[in-house]
Amino acid sequence: MKYTDTTWDFIGANTKQYTHCYHSYPAMMIPQIAARLIDSFCLRKN
């Protein structure tokens, strides 16, 4: 059985935020992925 995690699908999201609308290239990391990784793995200070 294959596990599919659809929470990483950003279908319908604006993936051209910030400077991503100026140049398109195949290996572009969309802002939503970077934001999720930062939120998930950075320590928060109180």
Tally of alpha and pi helices: 1
Residue share in helices?
10-25%
Outline, from the CA principal axes? flat
For the residues shown, what is the average pLDDT?
84
- Gap between N and C termini: 42 Å
Largest β-sheet summary: none
Order of helices and strands: H
Number of strands: 0
Structural features, described:
The chain is an all-alpha fold. The protein is built from one helix and no strands. The radius of gyration is 14 Å and the shape is flat.
In short:
This protein has 46 residues and is an all-alpha fold. The protein has one helix spanning 31-41.
How are the secondary structure elements laid out?
Elements: H1 31-41
Characteristic terms for this protein:
single chain, 46 residues, mainly alpha
